[in-house]
Amino acid sequence: MKQSGRTLKQRLYNLGQLPGRIARARYFRGHGVHSPYVYSIVRQVFMRRDLMASRHDLYDELLALGAPMRRAIQLQNLMIHCGYATYAINALPEGCPYAILTSEVGESETLALVEEAKRLQATLVLSRPYDCRERTKLCNRIVEQHRCTSIDNRGYLILFHNHLPKQHFKL
Question: How do strand 98-101 and strand 88-89 relate by DSSP bridges?
């Protein structure tokens, strides 16, 4: 019998993540997503590895803030896919349809911006929903109270405030 060099504890380390992986397996590559709107986002935004158009302003700003390149590409492509002309980071000015909140924004400010996004019917992206225990609890509470479609993509949580029914997708 060949020795792998790892102890039993090291081999079973990722076993604790198995229930979450099984729960998310049905959404792999868009299978199990019964919303045509979310399915098009999965196929045309999340599965795409390059930028959709020549517009790179959000992409460049997210990279400057230290976001991973793949997440920056996905958020830029989401902006283009949904047809948003403007965006904001860590704020939500009047008339802005798309805002991204980094993990540096505090809990009270995040809740206030979620309420403002509801009022303006804007799409809000909360980055790093699993950064720490408090952030995870905050994001779970927001999803429970959210009245429209939300998508959890592990690296960020997207809250759509539009005509879509209440659904939550964990990709």
Answer: parallel
- d(CA 82, CA 65) in angstroms, rounded, equals 23
Single pTM value for the model:
0.79
- Give residue 143's Cα distance to chain centre: 12
- Please list the pLDDT of the chain residue by residue as tens digits (171 residues): 455 566 766 666 666 666 666 555 555 555 567 788 888 898 899 888 999 888 899 999 999 999 999 999 999 999 999 999 999 999 999 999 999 999 899 999 999 999 999 999 999 999 999 988 999 999 999 999 988 999 998 889 999 988 888 888 887
CA-nearest of 42, 47, 72 to 57 is 72
Cβ atoms of residues 87 and 98 within 8 Å: yes
